[in-house]
Design a protein that fits this description.
This protein is mainly alpha-helical. It has helices spanning 3-7, 11-38, 60-73. The chain folds into 2 domains: 1-39; 42-74, no CATH class. It is built from 3 helices and no strands. The structure holds iron/sulfur cluster. Residues 42-44, 46-48, 51, 53-54, 57, 59, 61-62 line the site of iron/sulfur cluster.
C-alpha cells in the first residue's frame, strides 16, 4: 500500500466523521442557545411598563415589577 491509499477513507469512516462533526455542531448550537438565554439583556433601559418582552423576561427589574403587580392585584 502506498501512503495515498492509506489516507483514503472508507464509507464507514466517512459516515462516522459526518456524525462526529454533526454532533459537535449540535452541541455547539445547544451551548450557544443556553448562553444566549443566560445572557438576557434589557432592551428597554429597565422601563418594564409597556416593554414587549415583559411577559417572558426574567431580568431582576422585570421580576420585581411582576412581583409588585401581583401584590397590587391582591
Ligand atoms: S421587561 Fe425586561 S427587557 Fe423589558 S424593560 Fe423590563 S427588564 Fe428590560
Amino acid at each position: 500500500m502506498t501512503s495515498e491509499e492509506d489516507r483514503k477513507m472508507t464509507r464507514r469512516e466517512f459516515l462516522c466523521e459526518i456524525g462526529r462533526y454533526g454532533l459537535v455542531l449540535l452541541l455547539g448550537g445547544g451551548i450557544g442557545v443556553l448562553l444566549d438565554r443566560d445572557g438576557e439583556n434589557c432592551i428597554n433601559q429597565g422601563i418594564c411598563r409597556g416593554c414587549g418582552r415583559f411577559e417572558a423576561c426574567h431580568l431582576p427589574q422585570a421580576m420585581s415589577a411582576k412581583e409588585a403587580m401581583s401584590r397590587k392585584q391582591q
